[in-house]
């Protein structure tokens, strides 16, 4: 059985949508249906003006996540609750609206000026009030608030009043209508739950939503030109900026088992559609140095939707995950109707725009080895601004020393070539050599054998090479003890 509609809850009302084009975004649908509180700013997931919250059932409770509606396809709402700024204020018995506590805090702390970005900020604040990690928040540290708001930009306020409003809200032990109505929402979600795949057609184009890996394989075989979409944080820009239309779009977000994350005796296995937000606690538990890089990988809205598998599959030379996964000797499992094969992640990238992915094959999972106790792992990102900016150069390193001699070193960079790549010439210089300034200087010179970087608006070739060398020097300073004190 194939369904031909998307079923979800808008606020507290059940909605079925079938008369849409496959590439319709959540923002487009909202504004076309009278929900104009959600704004379009950048249309690429950067500014946060379009932020909405999606609630999904997890066991006997709901998980609330902020997303960028401007790049999210409508199909991602199926079986979920969509909450927009219009849903927050409640009508009282006298007909007047009572502001939600986050809206009232914005008023009390003068957190809005021109007001264009305000709905997005309000929705990010609302998501934080329903985030279990903020339970017991004492207001002494603004860091978690800053991270929660990093995906929202404002040109008017300087952010300080918005942070104060957020701090006040999170310190209030208050509940709202979404807390009191949680069981009703869960009952509604269960009433629309379906295991049937979806097919929506319009103007000769179609959207397919498989539920099982077998269905996915069948669709990929039948429609080899089909474009797989998961988090849409990259493909969404093809739709909004390049106005692309796909004959067949295959949404992977509902495929059973494809978002799983498992820790075994030797590997962490990350399903291709696992989001950064879901994977981040496990990655940082085993490799703490991931934390700084991941908190700078997009805003929270991007991490809530974006997938690690998608970051690999799109083959971008500036994707942040491939270099660190490469130096950790990660494997990639690729699956087709013929079976599965496992390759080294670094072998997946052939040249710009070309990956080792056969027709009818999909990225299934990433196998990442558990850490070695005698090695250093570091990853450094260089970008024009600290938060939610695309990488100019990213360096990742694994180093193992014995008596100040290099037993093993693995170096990989993003942004230095048409694909993320290892610095094999530099590795050869360092391997077996003393870990000292002379060795590192020779390795820095050898980087010119490994890479011939390009100049673009993000960085010049000279800047990229200088940055790559400085990141290797930073590794030396942090692991040699020379920067102590």
In a nutshell, what does this entry contain?
With 485 residues, the protein is an alpha+beta fold.
Give a quick set of tags describing it.
Ubiquitin-like (UB roll), 22 strands, 485 residues, single chain, alpha+beta, Uridine Diphospho-n-acetylenolpyruvylglucosamine Reductase, domain 3, five-stranded antiparallel β-sheet, five-stranded mixed β-sheet, 17 helices, DNA polymerase, domain 1
The domain count comes to 4
Instruction: Provide the structure class.
Output: alpha+beta
The span between the termini is 66 Å
Rg, rounded, reads 24 Å
Q: Which segments are poorly predicted (pLDDT under 50) over 5 or more consecutive residues?
A: none
Average of the residue pLDDT scores:
94
Instruction: Give me the CATH superfamily of the largest domain.
Output: Beta-grasp domain
Query: What's the helix count?
Result: 17
- Order of the strands making up the biggest sheet: 2-1-5-3-4
Instruction: Please name the CATH topology of the largest domain.
Output: Ubiquitin-like (UB roll)
What characteristic shape results from the CA principal axes? Answer: globular
Write the layout of secondary structure elements.
Blueprint (H helix, E strand, L loop, with lengths): L5 E5 L2 E5 L8 H7 L18 E8 L2 E8 L12 E3 L6 E2 L5 E2 L2 H8 L9 H12 L13 H7 L10 H12 L5 H4 L1 H11 L5 E5 L2 E5 L3 H10 L4 E3 L5 H6 L7 E4 L9 E3 L3 E5 L4 H11 L3 H6 L4 H6 L2 H6 L8 H6 L3 E6 L2 E6 L4 E3 L2 E2 L6 E8 L5 E8 L10 E10 L2 E10 L6 E2 L1 H7 L6 H14 L10 H20 L5
Parallel strand pairs: 1-5, 9-11, 10-11
Antiparallel strand pairs: 1-2, 3-4, 3-5, 6-7, 8-9, 12-13, 13-18, 14-15, 14-18, 16-17, 19-20, 20-21, 21-22
Helix pairs in contact: 2-5, 3-5, 15-16, 16-17
